[in-house]
Amino acid sequence: MKFLNPPTLFLVIISLTMCSDQTCAMNSMYSSHVPNKGAYWPSWSIDFPPSAIDTTLFTHVYYAFLSPSNVTFKFEIDYPTALSLKNFTTTLHEKKPSIKTLFSTGGAGEDLKILFSRMALGHDSRKSFICSTIEVARKFEFDGVDLDWEFPQTPTDMVNFRHLLHEWRVAVKKEARSSGRPQLLLSAATYYKPEITLDNVYRTYPVASINKNLDWINAMCYDYHGGWDLTATGAHAALYDPNSNVSTSYGLHSWIKAKLKKEKLVMGLPLYGHSWQLKDPSLYGIGAPAVDIGPGDKGQMSYIEVEKFNAQNNAMVVYDLSTVSVYSVAGTSWIGYDDVRSVKSKIEYARTLKIGGYFFWAVDGDKDWKISQEGMLQFYIQF
Ligand SMILES: *[C@@H]1O[C@H](CO)[C@@H](O)[C@H](O)[C@H]1NC(C)=O
Ligand SMILES: *[C@@H]1O[C@H](CO)[C@@H](O)[C@H](O)[C@H]1NC(C)=O
Ligand SMILES: *[C@@H]1O[C@H](CO)[C@@H](O)[C@H](O)[C@H]1NC(C)=O
């Protein structure tokens, strides 16, 4: 907060005091200019409780993840999870009353794809899911819900996704009217671009419905390369790729070209890297021949772990201008990741595009808040 200059602070206070719990035109006008600076909190990170989150750096924090029952499509929350949910929202709201907390449902995993596909298929199952998200959000004092369906697999899934968004917004509006509370926020984590051709099935997100029914989307601008392709190293969150369209710049432009409202587009930034074992340590560039995954958990390492690895192994660290990414090399170990410089450039890029903001996966991967702070310093007022 200390970076806010007095006129801005004044504006914030005015807009807050003029807002009742009812819908407030001024608040929504103002909020469209406030950058969305989000971070996901993995609820399984044992040594990183919600109290460890530096809330001055974020506007939105997501609880990752909750899954609905694959039979009833409702959330069946056990006692430890209930405590964890309550602790998350209470801790964050106490530290920073204006912060928005959302619980994220879904995540990576084959089972979840199938579960969401089945849930979205019928009106009754969508209704069960929707009602349960609202109940859970209200019960545990969340400000909203984030749907992390990775990813709708067919054109039919996309049609059902569209029905879901529409019905979800109708339900959320209705609940707000009857409870007299602000509407719950609705967001979704999406593929880095609106068109998906994975598994040779072409499908595209319902952009008009997203504009109408979601508050924003978190475009996952990472995992472009990884342990699923062992033949060559890759910049897994490249801003640019001179040889292909698999890049953040292409993804963001594609969303804008598909007419997603710019302020609803939020760019993903990874606080982790992907690693490979080089075939020949003297060939170490991006795209160099590889033979296996490298250090880390199945070839993935958080930024903290990468920094530690680099120090312990006296790694060579290279900033690659053509992709706006970083890699480190120690012997045959190769790690591609983002650091303060690359994130700074990406946020500058996002700001030039005038999109809604950025988010990190995941909040516990930063070291001494070095990367997260970069966004805060640059974008505390305008974005
Ligand atoms: C639901 O999930 C359980 C455990 O994850 C699994 O055993 C079961 O087969 C699933 N049921 C359906 C209908 O997918
Ligand atoms: C949250 O959990 C932590 C660790 O278990 C505990 O110290 C803290 O008091 C809890 N906070 C709230 C608000 O429940
Ligand atoms: C990239 O996308 C553009 C249009 O979106 C297309 O014309 C071009 O062929 C693509 N390039 C590659 C390398 O796939």
UniProtKB/TrEMBL annotation:
GO terms for biological process: carbohydrate metabolic process; chitin catabolic process. InterPro entries: Chitinase_II/V-like_cat, Chitinase_insertion_sf, GH, Glyco_hydro18_cat, Glyco_hydro_18_chit_AS, Glycosyl_Hydrlase_18. One of its GO terms (cellular component) is extracellular region. Residues 1-25 form the signal peptide. GO terms for molecular function: chitin binding; chitinase activity. The keyword ATP-binding does not apply. Keywords: Glycoprotein, Glycosidase, Hydrolase, Signal. Pfam families: Glyco_hydro_18. Residues 35-379 form the GH18 domain. Belongs to the glycosyl hydrolase 18 family. Chitinase class V subfamily. This is GH18 domain-containing protein. The lineage of its organism: Eukaryota, Viridiplantae, Streptophyta, Embryophyta, Tracheophyta.
